[in-house]
Design brief:
single chain; 176 residues; five-stranded antiparallel sheet; 0% helix
């Protein structure tokens, strides 16, 4: 959190630009080190909208475990992070049920994420943050698959997903 996005200019390897099927999402960039997974988003929204984010994480990279959603076709999601992250509310859940059931248990873990710089650039909201790897089950491994969905602040409508629905979840290779 350095009040700038300039450090993201050099991140090209783990960068995903959305297409029209992605809804409000425009871009996602990911980076990591031994302690954190860093994220950068660009989306057609505002902080005031209070969008709810769902981060679906396949932390064991096994599509035969966790929740398989209709959104991405190659991941069994072991962890769900959900909430109005830009408003300070973001909860963690671990998948506990059979593979295709939406069965998650709330985790009372605190301080597992941090939002960094946030900037409104005309109709594009840009923000960065980090997930703390040691606080989230499975993130100390060599990689993970990830997809992010956004819904309205009252859950009345899905606003978008990145990667686009029907495509593969984004794979973050953490073997470097």
């Amino acid at each position: 959190n350095d009040d700038s996005f300039s450090d993201w200019d050099t991140v090209a390897l783990n960068s995903y630009t959305s297409d029209a099927a992605g809804g409000i999402f425009r871009k996602l960039k990911l980076d990591y080190d031994g302690e954190n997974i860093y994220f950068y988003f660009e989306m057609a929204s505002t902080v005031a909208n209070g969008d709810i984010f769902d981060f679906y994480l396949d932390t064991d990279n096994n599509p035969n475990t966790g929740l398989v959603t209709w959104l991405w076709n190659n991941s069994g999601n072991d962890v769900l992070l959900e909430g109005a992250m830009l408003g300070g509310w973001f909860d963690m859940f671990y998948h506990t049920g059979p593979q295709n059931s939406f069965t998650f248990d709330y985790q009372s873990t605190t301080d597992f994420f941090e939002v960094g710089h946030v900037q409104q650039d005309n109709d594009i909201l840009k923000f960065e943050g980090r997930l703390i790897r040691t606080k989230i089950k499975g993130l100390m491994g060599k990689g993970m698959k990830m997809g992010v969905a956004a819904t309205k602040n009252d859950w009345s409508a899905m606003l978008g997903a990145i990667p686009s629905p029907g495509t593969a979840a984004f794979y973050l290779d953490m073997t470097e």
